[in-house]
Amino acid sequence: MGGCFSGDVRGGTEPVGVGARAAAAGQGQGGPNEAVDHFLQGHGLRGLYTPLELSFSASKLRDMDALSKSDPMLVVYTKMDGRLEEIGRTEVILNSLEPLWITKTMLNYQFEIVQPLVFRIYDIDTKYHNTPVKMLNLAQQDFLGEAFCNLSEIVTKFNHSLTLNLRNGSGHALQGTMTVHTEETASSRTAVEMTFHCLNLDNKDTFSKSDPFLRISRLSESAVAIPICKTEVINNNLNPVWRPITLTSQQYSSRDDPLLVECFDFDASGDHELMGALQATIAQLENLYKSKAGANFYSHKGQKKLKGQLFLDTFLEKVQHTFLDYISSGFELNFMVAVDFTASNGDPRTPQSLHYIDPSGRLNSYQQAILEVSEVLQFYDKDRRFPAWGFGARIPQGSVSHCFNLNASTNDCEVVGFEGIMSAYSSTLYTVSLAGPTLFGPVINKAAEIASHSVQYVNNKYFVLLIITDGVITDEQETKDSIVRASDLPLSILIVGVGSADFTQMRTLDADLGKRLQSSTGRVATRDIVQFVPMREVQAGGQVTVVQSLLEELPGQFLEYMRTRGIKPRPPQHASASPAYPPPPPQL
């Protein structure tokens, strides 16, 4: 094995499968795949189903790189009405022809129907290693092969694992195989937070100290090691202390199921050297924490006891409520939108303009973004009244404004429904003159002001600001300062880039590359609250929609805010004491 998990960030040195986002991905974002649910409901198939978790590995893949090994990623599809629908992607594993992926795909198994699956493996080019996997254009990657099966073929296997030969697009055999493993998922909300450190690890490097990281795997009944998380890499240290990790019971299964804890010396080539391994259950790890003792690592397959030891500094068992727990108990996502009216968009009267209103009814990029995002979020906002602003235009009063109400008919910034946003947007194009520069700070501050005011009275509202823009911001540092301040508030910021501008600068606002924003005073953002998506790149990729890319991190950001502040879902409302139906008449 030995391959490192690049995930989305920093060439494989960041953690995977830990913390709020992992929990959200496993439980908080609606659980089973929504594309499949939509297909089943659309065909009237609403019967019983079993939620499954799919894990993946591959062996003897083709080596497509000249000076190193391939960097494989697996993409999962289901066939719907004869066409392929993507339902999941793994992380990228660097320099490995024997990948064992951590990222799982959730899927509902239904006995009554045939569920065809397609698996495609790609070698991700080095220049895309810092690109989030959801943004990768598969047409730009090397194709390593594909495999097909029905879900029923996997679940009927004794160990729920099926190995398939890889083929090319014409069906001819290629080198390599892939294995898919299924397990039923549990909807338990129990989670364990642990902090690990090691002492006296054996040094595997000649001219410096090793760069250790931990990988934790669950051992199935057939002794298959299924990776569930890894820590970050600690450079040049034989006594590393890692950041806390949180494992849900969905990841570790039960307190008494065995886990394999391996410590590796990170190597950028992907050939990580094992520094030691041990086997323990969650219950045994808790006892290790209570005893304050260390557990010795062993060499490969337990052949030799090593001097290196593993310690637990913290062990906290807790309940992790899901996104739907909050939403179903009355928590809201309050939607807000800000539209770029700077001159770089072009004259709205000409078809070349990004703001051109097509008489045929074809939506421009701004209208598309407004419609797609508001159609999803409107159902989580009870009154469906949305603050809507514009920025970068000369308003009728004569001055350039960087935060003005789209609803010019009243002093109220709110409009009703997404139809109200669309109408106010179109009307504004006829009442303002496009100007500049492009400043985000004022609209972010306005949204933060609303969120801050809300916190003083209620804790069940979370705000989502959508900013749609065509270009590079002029107030980059002021924007970063505003985002860092807002990271303490119940607020997420979604940014859609429209047009063909260079959005490289915009990506620095999104912490997907593993580095949180820092303000001009040196303060680091409490959490990542920004998600940036360039519309043209996502549309060109063709695998996911803009709204999917934009909203996928939102449940995790919501959960991180609620959990770090100890805000719990509201208890369920008890039914009225009066019976729903009158009692039966007395017997005569």
Task: Provide key terms for this protein.
single chain; four-stranded antiparallel beta sheet; C2_domain_sf; lipoprotein; metal-binding; 28 strands; disordered N terminus; 14 helices; plant defense; seven-stranded mixed beta sheet; VWF_A; alpha+beta; 588 residues
Strand and helix layout:
Elements: E1 4-7, H1 19-28, H2 34-42, E2 50-59, E3 72-80, E4 83-89, E5 92-94, E6 105-109, E7 116-123, E8 142-150, H3 151-155, E9 161-167, E10 173-184, E11 190-199, E12 212-219, E13 225-230, E14 245-248, H4 249-252, E15 259-265, E16 273-280, H5 282-291, E17 295-298, E18 305-319, H6 323-328, E19 332-340, H7 365-377, E20 385-391, E21 393-394, E22 400-401, E23 404-405, E24 414-416, H8 417-428, E25 433-434, H9 441-455, E26 461-469, H10 476-486, E27 491-497, H11 504-507, E28 530-534, H12 535-541, H13 546-551, H14 554-564
Parallel strand pairs: 19-20, 19-26, 26-27, 27-28
Antiparallel strand pairs: 1-5, 2-6, 2-10, 3-4, 3-7, 7-8, 9-10, 11-14, 11-18, 12-13, 12-15, 15-16, 17-18, 20-23, 20-24, 21-22, 21-25
Helix pairs in contact: 1-14, 7-8, 9-10
